[in-house]
Amino acid sequence: MANAKLITLTDPRSPASEAFRTLRTNIMFSSVENPITTLTVSSPAQGEGKSTLIANMAVTFAQGGNKTILVDCDLRRPSQHEIWDVENERGLTTMILEDAAISSPPLVETEVDNLQLLPSGPVPSNPADIISSQRMNEVIGVLKARANYVLFDSPPVLAATDAALLASKTDGVLLVIRAGHTRRDQAARARQALERVHVRIVGAVLSNAPREDSGEYYGL
To answer: Which residue of 61, 69, 181, 192 has the fewest CB atoms within a 10 Å radius of its CB?
Structure first.
């Protein structure tokens, strides 16, 4: 049974689910000249709801008939394996360490057609070094060859350099801003940190917005 956080599965007709589908469409058509096939999703700080948001985004991409891989690249506080209720013994860090895992990635099938999950794998002591490595470039290349869209769950921008490093290797970054929680100065500092490394900021998504508006999630 789907996790309650996966509203796109538990209540696909809800305003929130429709908002996710709108978000998917906006991302897919955000730039015709420079289409987005790899996307980093982050937030200024902890507790913004980025991991839940990207999991639901991945569902809508897959439901649209797109082969999608969701990667848990939050190597500090991974949570996708909990959201999807799968093991986390092998995953992204396995691909970094084992040559055999490059040719045969430890992808996990989900209950959603066209959607595979790459858990984080064992949490390393040096996340930033792993994300900045040439090997990470190889991993991204391998995953791109297997899917139409590869979505990366990243640590918060202000918590570590991981998000900026990862975003520089993907087609862009989407920032999750939580209504009533994210401070204005945090959002501004996160944007500045990403702009310093010339990352393409695709847009921002407001999570936890009042339900009387267009749903639980709105943005871009």
So the answer is: 192
pTM score of the predicted model: 0.92
CATH number of the domain residue 151 falls in: 3.40.50.300
**What does pLDDT average to over the chain?**
91
Residue 96 vs residues 26, 79, 126, 132, 166: alpha-carbon distances, Å: 32, 19, 12, 11, 14
Complete DSSP assignment for the chain:
---TT-HHHH-TTSHHHHHHHHHHHHHHTS-SSS--SEEEEE-SSTTS-HHHHHHHHHHHHHHTT--EEEEE--SSS--HHHHTT---SSSHHHHHH-HHHHHS---EE-SSTTEEEE---SPPS-HHHHHHSHHHHHHHHHHHTT-SEEEEE---TTT-SHHHHHHTTSS-EEEEEETTTS-HHHHHHHHHHHHHTT--EEEEEEES--TTSS-SEEE-
Cβ pair 15, 7 in contact under 8 A: no
Number of structural domains, the chain?
A: 1
Residue 7 inside a domain? The answer is: no
